[in-house]
Give the backbone structure.
Amino acid sequence: MLDDADAAAAEIVESAGEEAESIITEAGEQASKTIEAAETKAGEITEEANAKAGETEEAKEETKEETKEDNEAAAEDEETAKEDTVEAKDNSAESAKADAEKSSGSIRNAQIPAVPGTAYSVTKGDCLWNIAQRAYGDGSRWVEIYALNAGSISDPGLINIGQVLVLPAA
């Protein structure tokens, strides 16, 4: 009986060993599958992360390019604004000059009093004939004005703006 018990025990041990080997093999296969799945998943996650990193790098580059374009556009806008300001100032100055010329033209074309027996300051467009016409109502009396001012007039056809002439009494 002992032999039978030893044989039965040996059979149980052998069966347990085979079952253990089968469990170990199955566990090893399962572990290999799990490791393989984990490596596959890790590879996918790595690829995904790299893709996102690449997208992030592309986004950074796009942002840099957009910022550069925005800065260039802002610089162009600033330059245009400066040019517009200069142009507006020029237009304003030209307008003011035109207004001043119009006003001074009106003044020049107005009959500036030329009163006999007083001093008269020559203005643009004046000649001795016109001054005599305004002072005496007779342009031919320019000769009298010239004669009285001969010391300051070298040529009766050339009198200067701002020059002061003495007009003879009526």
